[in-house]
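Thread: "does anyone have the structure for this chain?"

Original post by V.I.:
We have the sequence but no experimental structure in hand. Need at least a predicted one for the grant figures.
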Amino acid sequence: MICSVANSLWLAGCLPELARFRRAITRVREEQEVVLRRLLRANADTEFGRDHRFASIRSVREFQERVPLRKYEDFEPWIDRIAEGSQSVLTREAVHVLEPTSGSSGASKLIPYTPSLQREFQRGIRPWIADLFLHHPDLMSGQAYWSVSPATMKNRRSVGGIPIGFDDDASYVGAWQRRLVDAVMAVPSSLRHLSNIDEFRDRTLQALRRSKNLRLISVWNPTFLSQLIPDVNTADLWPNLKVISCWTDANAAGPAASLRKLFPHAEIQPKGLISTEAFISFPLTGHEGAALAVRSHFLEFIPADDSSPRLAHELEEGQRYSVVVTTGGGLYRYQTDDVVKVVGRVQACPLIRFVGRKSLVSDWFGEKLNEAHVGEVLRATFAAFGITPSFAMLAFDETSYVLYIDSEEPDLAPVVSRIETELRRNFHYDYGRFLGQLGPLRLFRAPRAAETYLAAAIAAGQRAGDVKPVALDRAGGWSERFRGNLECGGLPPL
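Reply from O.Q.:
Generated one for you, tokens below.
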């Protein structure tokens, strides 16, 4: 009864935003212009706004001309000043939290969170939840497991006294709705305060075992859930489980396929593209890909050929773009480096799928391997051979790149050969092979590799639930961390 009432109230609170989103997807251009005007007007009287003359900007083109594309490093001096206590630097609203990123592709960043940025996240969360409940009404009668991660830092504050990190992952959904989420949680969010990962897992699993009416599971990394659940009959343990929401795109495809085998009675719903910095897209039942959250932030997209940025209504189906966001947290024309592919439309709103990270580049000898490209090579190769590894990643080791893979396929030599051939279409990689700076791609069979990678990421300071599956890792030394051995030397040297 408690679950039904709490979920019904949550749905009621989300329905108005779903209605606004449905109107917005019929007029994407106009909706995005409204978002931009709101941000410029709210932040004209800030240091950043005055420097870029926000008050006199009258069009998207003027905004693009006055504000250059930037990355986190470009914003860091402003964010450092905010952390020291300065006001009205990037936003008129006070920054109430500096939220660390997961740090999966580099050093952790501190993202300023304002009330406006939280409302922008809620404009994406609420239509997703409403759509989910409307299409799966059975979810409303039971409990949910919303992944929480053990805290990697406690009671930290910046020099200026701003808290670093939210107290609770549920903070994103909003104050009163957070209480409704807590009411249906199968696992109490207080477990995030446990610093011992083994105790965290044991206590989480105990709570899940007690939840006989579990209906919904929402995690980020499918491997996180796979490692949490022992080898049991999940249909007997949670017979009412209906939906699992998790990453399924890019290098999460293999782990997600493993999760489908572990939970054959539940639907796996792909998550949209969400990061600490921005809420980009969310899934809609019955549609491929994820719909752009056109009411959340002002969005721009850089085509694969690095030509002029496109706006949301200008995206072309089948094309790839890297994402640029302008948010209520003070990130203006911020390059997230997420690469997406447009896979369709709902009304006038593009549907996208995450491809990889543009900025994650491994470059030991000038080979400039890009994570997005490597991911596409791996996925295309595995599809060609009809295999679905539960883990696959390239990383440099000593003299060459190594394919670390967890797969039951007996003969992977042809797979290695195909991947090497595709990698050599990259001029810089091919030149490194020609010069002998890089040896041929090698194979390392790594049983339970996902578990090892997750443990290594946690040891490096990442939160367990936020660890992203990657197709390419810039660090070396993985042959010493994974169990297993090099099985073959790949292709013969030139």
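V.I.: this helps a lot. The chain has two domains: 1-69+76-297, 361-488.
O.Q.: and The domain at 1-69+76-297 is CATH 3.40.50 (Rossmann fold).
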